[in-house]
């Protein structure tokens, strides 16, 4: 039921973050409109079957986006970024800025933009984080109620092939005793639904979001428990970090505390009480992907970046 609410326009609804947001907004009773590139794709069809109004277009179709914003209350803005090799950092900034500009032009009441927890007062030197800092700054200068969310590392990232799970080990950025915050993608939508429900509380705010804090040793214990066989943990070796600039930069940011996350989980639970711990995620919605990773060899997608 829409309760007389105006729509929210969701970008990237066939992807991780937008999909989570579309699901949570529908659950909260918002009519949801989504810009999709291919309305015939299985994910688009699933969205339509769930009640989402589909508009065909891409980030480059300014006129389509402008028309799609007609009469909407809010916009959820997410863009793909450079490490996946699909867009450049410049593209990401252009798309993010254009969506914000069009939101102002069409009288959207509230925009929620999803950034990254690595974004802060200083640039990181990594294109896909600094692009988000630029989009944040652009939105901050516009006359619109805006909320920035800064998500932690997605739990889903940890079960992508290439981190060694198929070989009974797990290599990641953190040292064994180092803390890193994680976020279940499913929880992103819950935060965004809470934000759209209370623009007075969240308008003009930047909210770092996470679901759990773990160390490398926690990951070892929780992966071992979930797999039913030993999974050992170690940080990426010096050789790997030496050979891979992308991984090395991420590891440096973690060591500097800029990627570790500093979200206040207790305060976040007051917004979204049922945040998923990594353990509960592994046993629940992450279970299938974890099982698949245990049986899948391969290099991480950005292994040669
Ligand atoms: N914190 C983390 O651990 C973490 C992890 C991964 C990503 N991220 C960040 O999250 C952002 C990406 O979000 P995501 O993971 O939700 O993305 P995703 O799952 O890769 O989905 C991307 C979405 O954008 C759509 N899209 C791509 N190019 C488009 C275009 N030209 N026009 C219109 N729509 C387009 C895709 O549609 P189609 O279905 O048509 O492809 C899809 O819906 C990136 O900026 C990245 O840096 C953060």
From TrEMBL:
Q: Which of UniProt's keywords are assigned here? A: NADP
Which N-terminal stretch is annotated as signal sequence?
none
* Pfam families in the record: NmrA
Lineage top rank: taxon = Bacteria
Q: Which residues form a coiled coil?
A: none
Q: Where is the NmrA-like domain?
A: 5-243
* PANTHER family xref list: NITROGEN METABOLITE REPRESSION PROTEIN NMRA FAMILY MEMBER (PTHR42748), NMRA LIKE REDOX SENSOR 1-RELATED (PTHR42748:SF7)
Q: Which family does it belong to?
A: Belongs to the NmrA-type oxidoreductase family.
Protein name stated in the entry? Uncharacterized conserved protein YbjT, contains NAD(P)-binding and DUF2867 domains
- Source organism of this protein record: Paraburkholderia megapolitana
């Amino acid at each position: 039921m829409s309760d007389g609410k105006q729509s929210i326009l969701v970008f990237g609804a066939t992807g991780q973050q937008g999909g989570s947001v579309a699901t949570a907004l529908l659950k909260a009773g918002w009519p949801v409109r989504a810009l999709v590139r291919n309305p015939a794709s299985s994910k688009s069809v699933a969205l339509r079957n769930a009640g989402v109004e589909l508009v065909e277009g891409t980030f480059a179709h300014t006129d389509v986006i402008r028309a799609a914003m007609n009469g909407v209350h809010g916009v959820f803005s997410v863009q793909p970024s450079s490490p996946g090799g699909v867009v450049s950092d410049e593209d990401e900034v252009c798309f993010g800025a254009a969506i914000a500009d069009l939101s102002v032009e069409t009288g959207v009441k509230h925009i929620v933009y999803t950034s990254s927890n690595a974004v802060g007062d200083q640039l990181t030197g990594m294109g896909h984080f600094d692009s988000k800092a630029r989009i944040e700054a652009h939105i901050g200068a516009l006359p619109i109620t805006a909320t920035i969310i800064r998500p932690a590392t997605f739990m889903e990232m940890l079960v992508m092939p290439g981190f060694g799970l198929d070989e009974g080990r797990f290599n990641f950025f953190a040292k064994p005793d180092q803390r890193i915050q994680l976020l279940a993608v499913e929880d992103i939508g819950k935060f965004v639904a809470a934000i759209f429900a209370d623009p007075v509380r969240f308008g003009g705010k930047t909210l770092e979001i996470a679901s759990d804090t773990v160390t490398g040793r926690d990951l070892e214990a929780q992966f071992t428990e979930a797999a039913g066989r030993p999974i050992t943990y170690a940080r990426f070796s010096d050789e790997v970090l030496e050979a891979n600039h992308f991984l090395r930069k991420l590891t440096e940011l973690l060591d500097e505390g800029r990627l570790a996350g500093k979200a206040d989980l207790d305060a976040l639970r007051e917004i979204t009480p049922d945040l998923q711990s990594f353990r509960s995620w592994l046993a629940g919605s992450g279970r299938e992907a974890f099982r698949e990773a245990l049986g899948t060899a391969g290099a991480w997608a950005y292994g040669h970046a």
